[in-house]
Specification:
The longest helix is centred in the last third of the chain and has 19 residues, at 185-203. The protein is of the alpha/beta class and 204 residues long. The chain is globular. The protein has a single domain (6-198), classed as Rossmann fold. Strands 1-3-4-2-5-6-7 form a seven-stranded mixed β-sheet, sandwiched between helices. The protein has five helices and seven strands. The two termini are 22 Å apart.
């Protein structure tokens, strides 16, 4: 899939105010500082679409971007560490939870994981929440360019082992990406295109 247009639509903290359009949505979420904004900008060929920052926790709203006029990319606040107050963090958690539990247009969530780190409890807990609520998701391993192929392979193997050990029957769909080298870009976009095409067929 080629992205020809990526247009900011709306930001808010209330799932009731999200766009009413009945078009598919793909949400991107991960721990603070996982490289989400860089990944979104790489996927959309637009360095200024999502705000990148050296300060973790920059995204604090549900941000909708309309892609090619036929699906939404949804940029969600990072969970976990961010320099915000506990009260704000609780607020994030509630509206993030509301988004996942109430948003009928949500087709798939991309959970971003920093490929350099061992499995983190906060990521595993979040995937557990998605699984319990039957919310489809894929894993996107970020920053692959920071590792040698051998270390990357080992880290992915550790992740698979951990998830399967934690009572997951199968390892979710996953992508290995780098915002710097653009690795994984075509695979993520082709996956979204394939799902959108399947949705169209099922509606006819």
């Amino acid at each position: 899939m080629q992205i020809n247009s990526a247009v900011f639509e709306i930001s808010n903290t209330d799932v009731g105010k999200c766009p009413k359009n009945r078009i598919p949505e793909y949400a991107f979420i991960g721990r603070s500082n996982v490289g989400k904004s860089s990944l979104i900008n790489m996927l959309t060929n637009n360095k200024k679409l999502a705000k990148t920052s050296g300060t973790p926790g920059k995204t604090q709203l549900i941000n909708h971007f309309k892609i090619n006029d036929n699906w939404f990319l949804v940029d969600l606040p990072g969970y976990g560490y961010a320099r915000v107050s506990k009260k704000q963090r609780r607020g994030f958690q509630k509206f993030i939870k509301d988004y996942f539990l109430k948003r009928e247009q949500l087709i798939c969530t991309f959970v971003l994981i920093d490929s350099r780190h061992k499995p983190q409890k906060i990521d595993l807990d979040f995937m557990g929440f998605l699984g319990e609520n039957q919310i489809p998701f894929c894993i996107v391993f970020t920053k692959a360019d920071k590792l040698t192929p051998t270390v990357l392979k080992r880290n992915l193997a550790i992740y698979k082992e951990k998830l399967l050990e934690d009572s997951w029957d199968i390892f979710p769909n996953y992508f290995v990406t780098s915002a710097t080298s653009k690795e994984g870009k075509d695979q993520v976009l082709d996956f979204i295109q394939g799902v959108n095409e399947d949705l169209k067929k099922s509606q006819h």
